[in-house]
Design brief:
single chain, about 375 residues, alpha+beta, Gyrase A, domain 2, RNA Polymerase Alpha Subunit, Chain A, domain 2, four-stranded antiparallel beta sheet, 4 helices, 14 strands, RNApol_insert_sf
Length: about 375
Amino acid sequence: MDFNTEYGVDGEDTGPRVTIRRTNETTIDFMLSSTSLSLANSLRRTMLAEIPTIAVDLVEIEANTSVLADEFLAHRLGLIPLSTRNVEDMIYTRDCTCEEFCDNCAVILRLHAANRNSDENVKVFAKDLFAETVSGQPIQDARYQRNGAVDGLSSSEELPPRGQPVIMDPKGNGSLICQLRRGQELRVRCIAKKGIAKEHAKWAPTAAIGFEYDPHNKLRHTTLWYEGTNAKEEWPESKNKDWEEPAPDGEAFRYDSEPTQFYVNLEGTGVMPPDQILHAGIKTLQQKLATVIQQLSTTTDSGHELNGAAGDAGMGGMSPPDPAANGTAYGNQTAYGGQTPAYAQQTAYGGQTPGYGGAGSAYGGMGGATPYGRSGY
């Protein structure tokens, strides 16, 4: 979905509008207007949990003589932000046709650090991780050259090659993994895969999302708890108050009013630029809604497929006919010419049913002899 900061989604004056107020390499502050609370909250939840990213999913410890346990190291490695450049070209491992993992669904990260003879602790950072393909070839991109810290991420083209750690600190080291004393060594092999935060938080592209509407509380969705006599003295006004007009004094409360402007402050983890998180959230939400619409357009109100057999043939058995027409199944003629076994009436085979007062069955009365000469009980 195309949108800009002046005219909103699709460049039209109608429909949802996005106004970007502030942005930098990790955060974006924007206003979403001309939409409903449910849609705005759906976008927030989508950006939190359903945007695909890349993270370390499997760690193979080849050597670890540090003071940290293998599980602790695996947890720290999983939280290192990895570049999501061209993540849309990757396949989820569960959907890939390979036996374990391949270049289409995984990126290999290797780390080998050791302190041979230094009395000072050797610090191991994310920059010491080197990405490679499953076949062992280094992952390189001529369009990207890392020289220390990244000054700003304004587009996905400024990210490192897919799967490489994102380095954003001034020293260009990245996240601290561990420290090694003399004689200690760490050698690991990490398999990074594509996933979403709904599966695990390590795939989350956002660290936090602030979400606010109705800064003057005109809709009274929030009850302000206060000890004094004036709530405004104990509750500081929101920084978004200047974007809306307060309710005039004496104005009657409208219980049916709904919010139309929403203020979102998004903080990313560095795996992708913050404006790209917004783009990806809108795209993912569109795909989810399109799937729902497609399912609804191919099914009836009762949940049956429209592309099934024509008419009632694919809908199961036909209901009993109207009594005023050809009669029901209770005591009237059946489709086979015989009468139904209804409540002590004659059956289509000549025998009487044992129904509610009927004396005998087609094989005799209760306790009588069966066709094989034995009693029914």
